[in-house]
Amino acid sequence: MLKVTNITKKYPKKIVLDPLSFEIERGEIVGLVGENGAGKSTLLQILATTLKPTSGDIYFNEWSYQKYKSKIRRKIGFVPQDIAVWEELTVKENMVFFEKLAWENKSTSQLQQICQDMHLDRWQDPVKNLSGGMKRKLNLAISFIHDPDLLLLDEPTVGIDLKSRKEIGAYLREQATTHNKTIIYTSHDMDEITALCDRIITIGKDPFYKDLLKEAGKEVLSF
Ligand SMILES: Nc1ncnc2c1ncn2[C@@H]1O[C@H](COP(=O)(O)OP(=O)(O)OP(=O)(O)O)[C@@H](O)[C@H]1O
User: Fold this and answer.
1) Is 40 in the pocket of ligand 1 (CB under 6 A)?
2) Which UniProt keywords apply (predicted)?
3) Using CA atoms, how far apart are residues 15 and 220, in angstroms rounded to an integer?
4) Do the domain assignments include residue 118?
5) For 131-144, how does the pLDDT look when each residue is reduced to its tens digit (9 = 90+)?
6) 89 falls within a domain
7) Which of 5, 14, 141, 148 sits most deeply, having the most CB atoms within 10 A of its CB?
8) What is the ipTM of this complex?
9) Do the domain assignments include residue 91?
10) How far does the centroid of ligand 1 lie from the alpha carbon of residue 36, in Å?
């Protein structure tokens, strides 16, 4: 469903992706790992259509990113590292607010169900009263409102306790297996990556992650 061909990204003072090709099938969870500054967020932004590569092509199903950017964008849920929710509003009000901006309509009970499936049960509480982990769950729940086929998650579990991380992992696995969602997921937690991901892509110059993951018996594609 996703085909990346010879992608490069050159910033004025740095070449980050040089060049990179891979394919991902529907229903796969793919881990994206590498040292700080390797280019993981850059790659996710390119896949999310919010940043243009310097060269190379990407296809979503048979649609070229160059030709069908707005059509493709509707099929993607992107969760950047920074949490972007309304602190003064409740969980419910946040979900309803983002539903209004979303491409798919959902009823309030459907929105609540997304939160419950993630074990986010503080529906009527203002977000400012929630823990950091709960806020991350809400951030993630918002990305599922428009029922995207491809989820791009940039360190979605950073700073979250083990129980909540397991709950998020179980939710993502269920989404991939039962609902055929494709998920690309970055994390620096190698236990989480090896437990959750079907395949792993490593990027960056440091062979540390590649070697570590191969030792753990995972299928690794390295750039
Ligand atoms: N807009 C930009 N202009 C110039 N350089 C940039 C820009 N965005 C990122 N970079 C540089 O590109 C490199 C890759 O950044 P990126 O955020 O993609 O890495 P990362 O692998 O996600 O890192 P981390 O693990 O720290 O989140 C870094 O050296 C960063 O400073």
Assistant:
1) yes
2) ATP-binding, Nucleotide-binding
3) 22
4) yes
5) 888 999 999 999 99
6) yes
7) 141
8) 0.95
9) yes
10) 8
